[in-house]
Write a structure and sequence with these properties.
Keywords: Cell membrane, G-protein coupled receptor, Membrane, Olfaction, Receptor, Sensory transduction, Transducer, Transmembrane, Transmembrane helix. With 311 residues, the protein is an all-alpha fold. The protein is built from ten helices and three strands, in the order E-H-H-E-H-H-H-E-H-H-H-H-H. The longest helix is centred in the middle third of the chain and has 34 residues.
Length: 311
């Protein structure tokens, strides 16, 4: 098949074609993106300044916050600007880079959430061996594995798309470049490519989700052997993890565990895992995590106290 590309840019339809709705969305999503940046930066600063890196859970939480910032930044700034723009265009190269970024950071987040579940499993079910199993060297290797896994997944997705010919039309019924909407524009049969894309994304999403469900089920069952105080602390930590998993994996499963088709609801579903989840993550982890809350209070209390003394 000879590749012929007459398309140099794509045009987004965006979230809505109603100007009043777009203006409201501009204010709302600008606020959401600000919360994403400030909330996740607060967690990263708290982990760094509170010297929590030595604890594996906070080591991975720090990188989860970093990935959340990167993940939302791939789509949110462009979407927010486009809400007030008359022409919502993106270059072909920009579209491929955005597609790569969405799948790279999205897949990396999935793997980090899976590693965090394993960390909780070891901490609760094998507490005596926790420091041996989750030492710094192993944590670094697992973190590296999440980045490599995300890269391999996303490079496969992009490689499948860039070899397709695009002859027009070039309008994407979405607010960012994702695989399924872009495949619809290819001027060739994309059935095989669609199957491979679904197998690639679906295997990772479903496989990780099943592993997470099994891990937390084992954790919850094992809590029966713990004291009431131990159960309370473990449930508080695991509860925040489970909440994040459900909010993130629910929409992802809807989007990627299906054949190469698109629905009108896809854009709103995508908002959940590209914007809502990165925004809720820091809120969930700070509100339900005593260690993070205490560290934030201690750091800010120390800062306020020192400023008062300076005056």
């Amino acid at each position: 098949m000879e590749k012929r590309n007459n398309v140099t840019e794509f045009i987004f339809w965006g979230l809505s074609q109603n100007l009043e709705v777009e203006e409201v969305c501009f204010v709302v999503f600008s606020f959401f993106y600000t919360v994403i940046l400030l909330g996740n930066l607060l967690i990263m600063l708290t982990v760094y300044m509170g010297n929590l890196f030595k604890f594996p859970m906070y080591f991975f939480l720090n990188y989860l916050s970093f990935v959340d910032i990167c993940y939302s930044s791939v789509t949110a700034p462009k979407m927010i600007v486009d809400l007030l723009a008359k022409s919502k265009t993106i270059s072909y190269v920009g579209c491929m880079l955005q597609l790569f970024g969405v799948h790279f950071f999205g897949c990396t987040e999935i793997f980090i959430l899976t590693v965090m579940a394993y960390d909780r499993y070891v901490a609760i079910c094998k507490p005596l061996h926790y420091t041996t199993i989750m030492d710094r060297n192993r944590c670094n290797k697992m973190l590296l594995g999440t980045w490599i896994g995300g890269f391999l997944h996303s490079i496969i997705q992009v490689a499948l798309v860039v070899q397709l010919p695009f002859c027009g039309p070039s309008e994407i019924d979405h607010y960012f470049c994702d695989v399924h909407p872009v495949l619809k524009l290819a001027c060739t049969d994309t059935y095989i490519v669609g199957v491979v894309v679904t197998a690639n994304s679906g295997t990772i999403a479903l496989g990780s989700f099943v592993i997470l469900i099994i891990s937390y089920t084992v954790i919850l069952v094992s809590l029966r052997k713990h004291s009431a105080e131990g159960r309370r602390k473990a449930l508080s930590t695991c509860g925040s993890h489970i909440a994040v998993v459900i909010i993130f994996f629910g929409p992802c499963t809807f989007m990627y565990m299906r054949p190469d088709t698109t629905f009108s609801e896809d854009k709103m579903v995508a908002v959940f895992y590209t914007i809502i989840t990165p925004m809720l993550n820091p809120l969930i982890y700070t509100l339900r995590n005593a260690e993070i809350k205490n560290t934030i209070k201690r750091l800010w209390g120390r800062k306020v106290f020192s400023e008062a003394n300076d005056k």
